[in-house]
Amino acid sequence: MGQTVVRNLYWETVQLMPVSPDYHDLTDLLLDAADNLGMTTAQIANIQTACEAVEID
Questions:
Q1: pLDDT confidence of residue 57
Q2: Could you tell me the pTM of the whole model?
Q3: Which end of the chain, N or C, is more open, meaning fewer C-beta atoms within 10 Å of its C-beta?
Q4: Cβ(39)–Cβ(4) below 8 Å
């Protein structure tokens, strides 16, 4: 994805984060942030796969 895309994803995720998120929230927040940033379907699928791989979904 590249550093700029990941940095923007991180920033958007933090902006959406509630006061005390858990790992399930993190998956949803990452996917919402990706959608807000207009990422492609392939990029969003990649994020979902990564969340599943590290078992935070």
A1: 75
A2: 0.88
A3: N
A4: no
